[in-house]
Amino acid sequence: MSESRELTVTFVPGVTPGKWIHRWEERMPGVPLVSTPVPESRQLDAVRAGEVDMAFVRLPVDKTGLHVIPLYNELSVVVAPKDHPIAAFDELNVEDLADEYLLANPDDFPEWRDISTEIAAGTRKPLPPMASIEEALDLVEAGLGILILPMSVGRLLSRKTLRSRLLHGVAETSIALAWIDSFQPLPAEDEAVIQEFIGVVRGRSANSSRQPSVQAKQDAAPKKGAKTGKSTTSGRTPAAKGKSVIHRRTANRQHQ
């Protein structure tokens, strides 16, 4: 593969891409990987705008026009003030939260919605304004309610004034890798870069025959009994240095 390309990815809170970045740097030192954190509310904006190649997202998402590969599931935690009764337990069931005020849309947690005493009684108050998880945690800290979060997010945003406990009885959340489903095939080298990264994220070994880099080496190796010699032509034109896969893809479309 050419050494002039760049792969760009974004990731939502709770995703720690360090291990994948490390593996990528070991296997593909000539292809820089640039990763950028994004809030969950805008987790697909950059990839849909063609600003990055791929995105680590938290499901569910609108899959229209996308390739989406689920990677792993996450357990949930309930977050409350440190002096809340949940602090006395290591784990809880969603039924234990029936009398609590959840600082979230009840439809996002149907298991809690269906057993909530305030919803059953028709006494639930409207949600206060919250523009981010951090603002929601401020309200938890003030004693206005509880939150249910993916465990990784609860750990990432932990505070000394709050306590989080493993919560059973709610659906697990899922992390996935998403990228644009192009209306036309990508150039072979661009597709190879994307497939190489998918293999890294999925845990394929550096010597896996499914990795494009391994296939390229096998294709380039002299065949038994074949004559060797230098090629006088090249079927590929190197991309502009520093350009990402998606940037080159966009440029190709504009010239069509």
Question: Strand-and-helix sequence, N→C?
Answer: EHEHEEEEHHHEHEEHHEH
What percent strand? Answer: 15-25%
Shape: elongated
pLDDT averaged residue by residue: 84
The description of the largest β-sheet is: 6 strands, mixed
Number of strands: 10
Counting helices, strands and paired strands, the structural category is: alpha/beta
Note poorly predicted spans. Answer: 215-221, 231-243
Query: Helical region count?
Result: 9
Q: CA-to-CA gap between the ends?
A: 25 Å
Q: Using the CA coordinates, give the radius of gyration.
A: 24 Å
Helix content: 25-40%
Characterize the structure shown.
It is a single chain. The chain has 256 residues and is α/β, with parallel strands linked by helices. Helices cover 28% and strands 22% of the residues. It contains 9 helices and 10 strands. The chain has helices at residues 18-27, 45-48, 110-113, 117-121, 133-141, 151-156, 188-201, 212-220, 245-254, and strands at 5-11, 33-37, 54-58, 66-74, 76-81, 91-93, 147-150, 162-168, 173-180, 243-244. Strands 1, 2, 3, 4, 9 and 10 form a 6-stranded mixed beta sheet that branches. A 4-stranded mixed beta sheet has the order 6-8-5-7. α1 (18-27) links the parallel β1 and β2 (33-37). The two termini are 25 Å apart.
